[in-house]
Every structure is written in structure tokens, then in C-alpha cells.
Design goal:
single chain; 188 residues; alpha+beta; NADH Oxidase; 4-stranded antiparallel sheet
Amino acid sequence: MELAEAIARRRSIRLFTGEAIDTGLIDELVDAAISAPSSLNAQPWHFHVALGAAREAAGAAIAQSTRFLQEYADMLPPEMLDKAARFYADLGRAPVLIAVSVPEADDEVDRINVLVAAGAAIQNLMLRATDLGLGACCITVPRWVVDQVKSAMRVPEDRMIAGLVLVGKPAEEPVAAPRRRDVVTYIE
């Protein structure tokens, strides 16, 4: 698949078949991720891959966040709230959960640098997943359960989770949402 096609076809998949993914494919995703740029080539990322029982434990920690979804009730329409609750209950049956961690940073510039690097790595991973016919979805760690998720994913105390990536064989083909075109300003 050409890069332009992978970019155009990539969607956030939130429903998976639940079928196991070969670890060789996961290795290919990580190889793509570690090719991302980082400030001063620091490569600050670490990939915590949860499969099987570890995936279930991490998913159970994340599922606890559904009890806090009421806090979103005033912001989301009811159908979106229901959809979010169903998704968080089992993470769309994704068989692979990857936590991307980076070092905690007190300095604002350092923090921005490691988070930008993690974002680039996650995008590479997701594009490679699309290229391999897999589905992926990047989510943030629900703040209410971050400590439980870090524990389940064995993320050291001195690191923060920049994002979680669900990976699996897609059981849906979402249609692309319209993209805004008013996002660029040319300056001469």
C-alpha cells in the first residue's frame, strides 16, 4: 500500500473481531513506531504490549472509568455517552493494548518534546497497522484510573502514558468524517 493510501484509509477502529494477532505483526508495528522522529534523537518512548491475561487486566482497569462517564453527560449527547460506555466496557474487543510511555518531565519544553515524539511514534504505528490490514485506535488514559492502568501495563512510576493504542482485526469500516479545510494560514 502506498503511504498516501494508508493515510487516506486510516480510521480509528473501535470494534474488533477479538481474534489474536501474531506477535510478528506487533513487532512490525513497533518497528514502524521507533522510526519516528524525536527531539535530539532521544527516542523517549517505550511500548508496553499487553496480550491475553495482561490485556484483560489492563482492560478491566480502563473499564472502571465507565462509572465516571456521568461527568461527561452534560457535554455529550446521550447516544455518544452510551457508545462511549459500551466501548470502554471491553475496548471494542481489541486483543492487543499498547501503552506508549515517555519519561515524566517537569520542564515544559521537555514535556512537549517527549509527547510530540510519542505522537509521531503512535501515528507511524497506526499507519503501519492500516498497511497490514489491521485496525487501531489511539485513546488517552482515563484520568480517573491512570494509576491502575499504569500498574496493569507495568509502566514505571517515573514514566507517564502518552497514549494507549488498541490493535486488532477490524470488525467495522467507519466512514471518514469530513475534514475541516480552514486549518491553514499562509504567511509571506
